[in-house]
Amino acid sequence: MGENLILYPKDLNFESLKSVEDAYAKISNIKVDDVDLVNPDKQHEDLIAKITRSYNQAKEVLESYKLTCPDLLLFLGPSYFDGHSVVFNKNNAITFLDLEVIDYHYQCSGFMPLVHMVHELIHSLHYSMNKPFALQNIGNDKYNLLRHCISEGLATYYSRVMTQDKFDSYWFGLFPKDDVSHWLEDCEDQFRADLQLVLQNEMSVEDQLFSVESNEVSWRRAYHHGSVIVDRSLNKADFDKTCSMTVDDWLEEILQYIDT
Description:
- 38% of the residues are buried.
- The chain has 10 helices and 4 strands, in the order E-H-H-E-E-E-H-H-H-H-H-H-H-H.
- Helix 2 (45-64) crosses helix 4 (113-129) and helix 4 crosses helix 5 (144-163).
- It has helices at residues 14-28, 45-64, 99-107, 113-129, 144-163, 177-199, 206-210, 222-231, 239-243, 247-254; strands at 5-7, 72-75, 83-88, 92-98.
């Protein structure tokens, strides 16, 4: 296994595990009593081996940019996310993958596991430097949609740059390229209108901007919009500096071109 790979619950003590479960419940909008992170069993050994290879490849990619690869937590269920990152014990960030969902990804012939892995690991790097952007910390203030948009955009942009994959950083190869091409056209058409809604914190569009509807390439446009915002940032060449930018920093940059 990879040097930093954590298989739940092997290397997490009770308090750390409880902190992870609390964070997972918050980002899933469920009660913590409904969170049941089940330990992978022998029937998932082949899947875990594939994930381990992807993790080790991603570690090499991150280290080539002089970044420390975050820890990875694997579990089964409750299937609200394929993967993401959470802050636990107040200071530590960890990436997790839900094997129930990831197993489906690996059954798709076009799936790009390295791009997906780097994307999720970048969330941990971002959150460890800038905890207000962690999904569990995005509250009900007027910038929660913007924080979420930047978070996904940052992970999308840097996973594309670091893996040199100009296409599948959006959907990880899970959908046909023709569908993704049409989606990109739609994203470009909707960019300004959507960004105005993000800046207005219009919560009625949250699902359309961040979720997947019926396994169709139509929603989830904030991943594109956020990556465009990061690509236009004056700081994009400096990963640490970009990850450390505050909401006010992003607003200052965005407002320079949103009305142009």
